[in-house]
């Protein structure tokens, strides 16, 4: 059987698709962050949450999303970025993390950005002063810099266990 050039071209195209990654860009304060688009389930306006007693401060509470109780994490509090303010731009990004649905509160969402491997730089080593395990790296596009968050690592197993106990 003769192999056609098109099958080689499609294999090369698949490689290019794997190499480029899409991130949802959002802001917290003056910084721009990105989370892998495949983790995003939906984006919603911020609404009042039901507070859970004895939950850590960064867990704002829970909301009922079409019959699913979803824990809501305020990223400003989680990243220690000052007192959060909620306005018409504040949104909740609903994520699917390891089969669990979790919402994160961010200041605003801007767009979906496609980054090639050359545009993603490793996170700088900060020594013991700052834990950068939850960062994929820094994405650069023209004059923009996106802090790329590995949401699975950020929502560490200890925290996810806590979230499980709240929503169970």
UniProtKB/TrEMBL annotation:
Keyword Cytoplasm: yes
Superkingdom per UniProt: Bacteria
Localization of this protein: Cytoplasm
Domain CheW-like residue range list: 20-160
Pfam families: CheW
Protein's recorded name: Chemotaxis protein CheW
Main location: cytoplasm
Taxonomic lineage: Bacteria, Pseudomonadati, Pseudomonadota, Betaproteobacteria, Burkholderiales
PANTHER family on file: CHEMOTAXIS PROTEIN CHEW, CHEMOTAXIS SENSOR HISTIDINE KINASE-RELATED
Keywords: Cytoplasm
CDD domains given in the database record: CheW
Biological source species: Noviherbaspirillum autotrophicum
Any single GO CC term annotated in Swiss-Prot or TrEMBL for this entry: cytosol
Gene Ontology terms describing biological process: chemotaxis; signal transduction
InterPro entries the record matches: CheW, CheW-like_dom_sf, CheW-lke_dom
């Amino acid at each position: 059987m003769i192999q056609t050039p098109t099958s080689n071209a499609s294999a090369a195209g698949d490689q290019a698709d794997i190499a480029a990654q899409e991130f949802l860009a959002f802001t917290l304060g003056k910084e721009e962050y990105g989370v892998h688009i495949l983790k995003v389930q939906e984006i919603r306006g911020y609404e009042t949450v039901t507070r859970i007693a004895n939950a850590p401060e960064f867990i704002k509470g829970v909301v009922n999303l079409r019959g699913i109780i979803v824990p809501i994490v305020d990223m400003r509090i989680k990243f220690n970025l000052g007192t959060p303010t909620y306005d018409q731009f504040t949104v909740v990004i609903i994520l699917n993390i390891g089969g669990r649905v979790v919402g994160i509160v961010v200041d605003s969402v801007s767009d979906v950005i496609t980054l090639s491997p050359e545009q993603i730089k490793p996170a700088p080593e900060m020594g013991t002063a700052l834990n950068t395990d939850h960062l994929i790296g820094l994405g650069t596009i023209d004059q923009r810099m996106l802090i790329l968050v590995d949401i699975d690592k950020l929502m560490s197993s200890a925290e996810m266990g806590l979230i499980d106990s709240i929503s169970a």
